[in-house]
Write a structure and sequence with these properties.
This protein has about 260 residues and is an alpha/beta fold. It has a single domain, classed as Rossmann fold, CATH 3.40.50.150. About 40% of the residues lie in helices and about 25% in strands. Strands 1, 2, 3, 4, 5, 6, 7 and 8 form an eight-stranded mixed sheet that branches. Strand 4, helix 7 and strand 5 form a beta-alpha-beta unit. It is globular. The structure holds S-adenosylmethionine.
Length: about 260
């Protein structure tokens, strides 16, 4: 099955739709607050949120811009975004199905583009980043966040195998230097950077993606055997009869060149 079909399958389940709509990390995460405080939109801006999930980022910016288009490849997630927008009486948010790697918009359309916690699903991240550059107006703003891993190759491979066992639609999390190089190649200048470490409870994290009992057991064993280079990142601790571990997330605010 292609990665994109796998994404749609993973994110269409009731657990996923409900989980991403209510998840603290997604609905109230530190990276959302960071984007909201670091980006200063004008009231006449047209914004695009790519891979919107349950729409948390689009809903955060909607009151501060003229209009937000929230896009995602999974129709069930877009339906949840529309439902939350209606509940909160947000009338300037429109949903539209779209693949991040081939955006259905003309060049130079948006003043602001946001993409939060999603690039690791895209099989061709660099194509998506070029699309971000294409649809932004010259001088437009990109608000981006995603998880990052350590630069050591074997440890980065272990990290990605861990994430992929939990979510088969996970493609690849990059070390920061590889990520920033992709953006700079596409013409972006980085204006602000924030590094975050967020702690998760294992079962809540695994259940959002319907992980089987067998795979949960494997993931817990893997966490006891992580390479040394991953110890500062995962920082695992066993307490209250469960496992807690961390992920690193990067927040980048960028501007596209003229
Ligand atoms: C973790 S959720 C995104 C969270 C959301 N941006 C937020 O701020 O809460 C990941 C989303 O990426 C979407 N996605 C994955 N691959 C995609 C692609 N190629 N194009 C568009 N959306 C994609 C999934 O359908 C899913 O809704």
């Amino acid at each position: 099955m292609s990665n994109k079909r796998t994404v749609q399958q993973q994110f269409s389940s009731r657990n996923a739709v409900r989980g991403y709509a209510t998840s603290d990390i997604h609905a109230r995460g530190e990276s959302l607050a960071a984007l909201a405080s670091l980006i200063h939109p004008q009231p006449d801006w047209l914004a695009l949120d790519v891979a919107t999930g349950a729409g948390h980022t689009a809903l955060t910016f909607a009151p501060r811009v003229r209009q937000v288009i929230a896009t995602d490849i999974t129709p069930a997630m877009l339906a949840k975004t529309a439902e939350l927008a209606a509940q909160r009486q947000v009338s300037n948010l429109e949903t539209r199905p779209a693949d991040a790697e081939s955006l259905p918009f003309p060049d130079d359309t948006f003043d602001l583009l946001t993409c939060r916690l999603a690039l690791h699903h895209f099989p061709h991240a660099e194509n998506a980043i070029r699309e971000f550059a294409r649809v932004l107006k010259p001088g437009g703003t990109l608000g981006f966040t995603d998880n990052i891993t350590v630069p050591e190759k074997a440890a980065a491979g272990f990290y990605n195998a861990y994430e992929k066992l939990r979510d088969p639609s996970h493609h690849w999390v990059y070390p920061l230097a590889r990520l920033t190089a992709m953006f700079e190649r596409a013409g972006f200048s980085i204006i602000e950077t924030r590094r975050l470490q967020k702690e998760l409870e294992f079962h809540t994290w695994a259940d959002r993606q319907n992980v089987s009992a067998e795979n949960k057991a494997t993931l817990q064993t893997m966490m006891r055997e992580i390479p040394a280079a991953l110890k500062p990142l995962f920082a695992p601790r066993w307490a209250d009869g469960t496992l807690y571990f961390s992920l690193w997330e990067i927040v980048l605010v960028m501007e596209i060149g003229d």
